[in-house]
Amino acid sequence: MNAETPIPHRARRPAAPLAGTIAVPGDKSISHRALMFAGLAIGETRITGLLEGEDVLRTAAAMRALGAEVARLDDGAWLVAGPGLGALRSPDDVLDMGNSGTAARLLCGILASHDIFAVMTGDASLRRRPMRRVIEPLAATGAGFAARPGGRLPLAVTGAAEPLPLSYRLPVASAQVKSALLLAGLNARGVTEIEEPEPTRDHSENMLRHFGASIDIHTQGTGRLIRLRGQPELRAADIVVPGDPSSAAFPIVAALLIPGSRITIEGVGLNKLRTGLFATLREMGADITVINAREAAGEKVGDLIVAASALRGVDVPADRAPSMIDEYPILAIACAFARGPSRLRGLAELRVKESDRLAATTDMLRANGASVAIEGDDLVIVGGANRLGGGLVTTQMDHRLAMSALVLGLAADAPVTIDDARFIDTSFPGFIPLMRSLGADIAAEGAPA
Ligand SMILES: O=C(O)C1=C[C@@H](OP(=O)(O)O)[C@@H](O)[C@H](O)C1
Ligand SMILES: C=C(OP(=O)(O)O)C(=O)O
């Protein structure tokens, strides 16, 4: 974040239901990958719908520092050219990945497998997050890593001149770790094998195919075995980035909770490894309809119609977590308004996001009158409280907490204030004006409504 001063905001229940048609910004996961894979391909890739959020702009800057040409055109599309696999150069300065775990971890895979030296850091939130999960497996390519104690940023990488292919079974369900290893495997001679015991978002695999790599995926028990042949000739291939389902989650839950609302969200990504929230909300009684289902650049897309619904509590199994890992704070808001208790299971990974989201979601709900507990790795929410809202939420440099708390304020009996709205720009620039265009009452604290 550039501006130094926090910008508090307040959300209150609007006088009228939410209504209208919107599109949410491009998918964050696909946007990072589009810039990285395009920089490793031969030729010029045109990317339409790229998310222009702070996190993705960090990836764009890093790819430039490694020698790629990355430019925004007047029509809003982005052009990325080369330098191509194996041809990256050492950056002149430290790579600052800001708030973005995806940018930092995926880039480690690229750096480890090129004959370069680089130093990487991030903001205070990212410097607290674990990097050993990528450092350890990537060291087997022959790369050298030196990191702060605990495997934290800043870190320095001396990439392998002749990277070795990897064979690795993921100990945690993480698309970031999987993708870092696939990126490293691209420049290794031979076949890289990754086993994931639980399927995670497969945007890297889809995009690798799109760029012409040879990749096989076999179902194995509940998980997958992925085999990537190294040193393919990646050819530039245009990309249309779908709307981010993780961003759509916020207007969706707001529309479900504000009586009488009915909204349409166009062009939302519907990859089934990302849509666990939609399945869960439907189990709770949500009225969400998909129309115009179609495909763009190897990804499923559709328009969503969402109508206000009376929700009931839900029990979400742990094996659904990878398909909705970023959506638990906003799901917890829906559960607080639902009739009956909810149990969201197996959320250990939430402890290592931009904040400890298990603790922070609990604090957010308690500060606003909801009854909630952490039991082991589960979040248990009582639901159906008489009066919610009236609290101040500390957002802890976490965009998803900030947006969840504002949605809580839109549906609650009393307004909700957040201490700082700046981090929303990491994944959802324009969130507040877009919500206001639907009729939401959100304003900077102290500003006239
Ligand atoms: O691969 C990705 O683009 C992402 C994977 C997830 O992280 P993990 O792989 O750490 O679960 C998710 O939380 C993050 O927002 C984006
Ligand atoms: C966890 C997230 O992102 P990242 O890991 O890229 O910081 C997120 O967007 O919720």
UniProtKB/TrEMBL annotation:
<feature type="binding site">
    <location>
        <position position="28"/>
    </location>
    <ligand>
        <name>phosphoenolpyruvate</name>
    </ligand>
</feature>
<keyword id="KW-0057">Aromatic amino acid biosynthesis</keyword>
<feature type="binding site">
    <location>
        <position position="28"/>
    </location>
    <ligand>
        <name>3-phosphoshikimate</name>
    </ligand>
</feature>
<feature type="binding site">
    <location>
        <position position="176"/>
    </location>
    <ligand>
        <name>3-phosphoshikimate</name>
    </ligand>
</feature>
<feature type="binding site">
    <location>
        <position position="129"/>
    </location>
    <ligand>
        <name>phosphoenolpyruvate</name>
    </ligand>
</feature>
<comment type="function">
    <text>Catalyzes the transfer of the enolpyruvyl moiety of phosphoenolpyruvate (PEP) to the 5-hydroxyl of shikimate-3-phosphate (S3P) to produce enolpyruvyl shikimate-3-phosphate and inorganic phosphate.</text>
</comment>
<dbReference type="InterPro" id="IPR006264">
    <property type="entry name" value="EPSP_synthase"/>
</dbReference>
<keyword id="KW-0963">Cytoplasm</keyword>
<dbReference type="InterPro" id="IPR001986">
    <property type="entry name" value="Enolpyruvate_Tfrase_dom"/>
</dbReference>
<feature type="binding site">
    <location>
        <position position="400"/>
    </location>
    <ligand>
        <name>phosphoenolpyruvate</name>
    </ligand>
</feature>
<dbReference type="InterPro" id="IPR013792">
    <property type="entry name" value="RNA3'P_cycl/enolpyr_Trfase_a/b"/>
</dbReference>
<feature type="active site" description="Proton acceptor">
    <location>
        <position position="326"/>
    </location>
</feature>
<comment type="similarity">
    <text>Belongs to the EPSP synthase family.</text>
</comment>
<feature type="binding site">
    <location>
        <position position="176"/>
    </location>
    <ligand>
        <name>phosphoenolpyruvate</name>
    </ligand>
</feature>
<feature type="domain" description="Enolpyruvate transferase">
    <location>
        <begin position="14"/>
        <end position="433"/>
    </location>
</feature>
<keyword id="KW-0028">Amino-acid biosynthesis</keyword>
<feature type="binding site">
    <location>
        <position position="326"/>
    </location>
    <ligand>
        <name>3-phosphoshikimate</name>
    </ligand>
</feature>
<dbReference type="Pfam" id="PF00275">
    <property type="entry name" value="EPSP_synthase"/>
</dbReference>
<dbReference type="GO" id="GO:0003866">
    <property type="term" value="F:3-phosphoshikimate 1-carboxyvinyltransferase activity"/>
</dbReference>
<keyword id="KW-0808">Transferase</keyword>
<comment type="pathway">
    <text>Metabolic intermediate biosynthesis; chorismate biosynthesis; chorismate from D-erythrose 4-phosphate and phosphoenolpyruvate: step 6/7.</text>
</comment>
<feature type="binding site">
    <location>
        <position position="174"/>
    </location>
    <ligand>
        <name>3-phosphoshikimate</name>
    </ligand>
</feature>
<protein>
    <recommendedName>
        <fullName>3-phosphoshikimate 1-carboxyvinyltransferase</fullName>
        <ecNumber>2.5.1.19</ecNumber>
    </recommendedName>
</protein>
<comment type="subunit">
    <text>Monomer.</text>
</comment>
<dbReference type="InterPro" id="IPR036968">
    <property type="entry name" value="Enolpyruvate_Tfrase_sf"/>
</dbReference>
<feature type="binding site">
    <location>
        <position position="33"/>
    </location>
    <ligand>
        <name>3-phosphoshikimate</name>
    </ligand>
</feature>
<feature type="binding site">
    <location>
        <position position="101"/>
    </location>
    <ligand>
        <name>phosphoenolpyruvate</name>
    </ligand>
</feature>
<feature type="binding site">
    <location>
        <position position="29"/>
    </location>
    <ligand>
        <name>3-phosphoshikimate</name>
    </ligand>
</feature>
<feature type="binding site">
    <location>
        <position position="353"/>
    </location>
    <ligand>
        <name>3-phosphoshikimate</name>
    </ligand>
</feature>
<feature type="binding site">
    <location>
        <position position="357"/>
    </location>
    <ligand>
        <name>phosphoenolpyruvate</name>
    </ligand>
</feature>
<dbReference type="InterPro" id="IPR023193">
    <property type="entry name" value="EPSP_synthase_CS"/>
</dbReference>
